[in-house]
Amino acid sequence: MSPRDAATATVTQARSVFSALGDQTRLSLVARLSSGGPQSISQLTSRSRVTRQAVTKHLDVLAGAGVVHDIRRGRERIWELDSARLQDASRALDQISRRWDEALDRLKIFVERD
Amino acid sequence: MSPRDAATATVTQARSVFSALGDQTRLSLVARLSSGGPQSISQLTSRSRVTRQAVTKHLDVLAGAGVVHDIRRGRERIWELDSARLQDASRALDQISRRWDEALDRLKIFVERD
DNA sequence: CCGTCATGCAACTCTCTGGTTGCCTTTTTG
DNA sequence: CAAAAAGGCAACCAGAGAGTTGCATGACGG
User: Fold this and answer.
1) Which residue has the higher pLDDT, A69 or B109?
2) Would you give the DSSP letter of residue A22?
3) Which residues contact B108 (CB under 8 A, 6 or more apart)?
C-alpha cells in the first residue's frame, strides 16, 4: 500500500469520528467524560438538557465510532472515553493540513521561479 | 478566562469543522483539494459521483466551517483549502485525548495507593 | 418483600440534509 | 456573433437523525 493510499484509508476511518463529534450534544458528552472521568448514563443526563433516552442514543453513536465504550457495574452502565480513535482523527487532520501547506509551498516556489 | 473555559471554547469552535468533515462526499473533496491543489467546481465534480449542484452545496458547507474559501477567476470559481481551522480541530481532539489520559493516570495512582 | 433507582425497548414526530432536475446568467472562444 | 463552458437559483423529494413519551425490566437498600 502506497503512502497515499494509507493516508486515504486513515482519513476514511476518521470520518465516523468526525460525524460522531459533529453534534453539539455528543461533543458535550465527550468533553464532560474527558474532564469528569467515567460516568453513568444518569450522571451524564443530569448535566444535560436532553432526555436520558437521547443521551443513551448519543452514547451508542459515539460507541459506534469507537470513541467511547461502556462497562456494566451492577444496575448501572459506566461510560468511558477511548482516546485512540480521537488521536487517529487528530492525526488525519494534521496530515491533510500538512500536505496542503506543502503543496502551497511548492506552488510558491514554482511561481517565484519566473 | 480559565484554561478549562479556553479548552471548551476551542472544542465548541471545532464542532462545525467536525460536522463538515463528517460527510463522505465532503471529506473526499477536502482530501482531493489537499493533494490536488486549488480546483474549480467543474474539476471537483468530474472526479465525484454526485452532481455539480451537490458539490457546490458541499463546498458552501465547508466554507461555512471555515475549512475552504473560494477565489473567482473569470467565469470559474477556484476553491482552496484553509488549513488553520483544520489544525485547530486537530489540536482540540488532541487536548481531549490528553486530558482523558491524564485523568486515567490520576485514577490509577489513586487506586494503587491503597 | 417493596419501593426506588438505573436502564432498556418501541413508536412517533419533526426537522435537517444530501441529492436531483430544470432553467437562467455570465464568460470564453472559434 | 453563436455555441459551448462554468456556474447560479429554486423547487422538490426521500431518508436520516435528534428528541420525546410511555411502558417494561432488572438490581438495590431497608
Assistant:
1) A69
2) T
3) none
Element (H, E) at A76: strand A76-81
pLDDT tens per residue, range A55-68: 999 999 999 999 99
What length is written for chain B? 114
**Residue pair A1/A12 in contact by the 8 Å Cβ criterion:** no
What cell was used for B90?
Answer: 486537530
> Nearest-CA residue of chain B relative to A107?
B37
Q: Which of A1-5, B17-21, B24-28 has the lowest mean pLDDT?
A: A1-5
In chain B, the residue whose alpha carbon lies closest to the alpha carbon of A83 is: B97
Rounded Cα gap, residues A25 and B31, in angstroms: 27
* Distance of C1' in D20 from CA in A83, Å: 32
Give the whole-angstrom CA distance, residue B83 versus residue B68.
Answer: 8
Question: What is the phi/psi pair of residue A51, to 5°?
Answer: -70, 160
Q: Which residue has the cell 436520558?
A: A52
DSSP assignment, residue B82? -
Task: For residue range B24-82, list pLDDT tens digits in order.
Answer: 999 999 999 999 999 999 999 999 999 999 999 999 999 999 999 999 999 999 999 99
pLDDT at B27: 98
Helix (H) or strand (E) holding B39, with range, is strand B39-40
Query: Per the CB < 8 Å rule, is B12 touching A27?
Result: yes
Helix (H, G, I), strand (E, B) or coil at B102: helix
